[in-house]
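Re: weekly structure request thread

Next one in the queue (95 aa):
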Amino acid sequence: MSIGIALSPLALDTTGNAVDAAVALGGTAAAAGLSALWFGQTFTHDAITLAGIVGRAVPELVVGTSAVPITARHPLLISSQAQTAQAATGEAGSP
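Done, posted below.
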């Protein structure tokens, strides 16, 4: 069985470096035995980018995004961003 969790954007420390906080929470999730961590988009940090960074720093976690609004971004931009995050995590897939 695989158990994951969705990280609340409110869990990220906004007084410090939120990227470092996301990586630390990813490490904590992996140490607790969770196998997946999902990020939701907020008005502060980009969910796709956070997933790529945390996935690279904590390779034992499967990372993903739960919701990414696309109305303000062109689909090609989102596709490129997702492919970059995929490459950063070392996950196999089509280019």
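The chain has one domain: 4-89. The first strand starts at residue 4 and ends at 7.
Next request, please.
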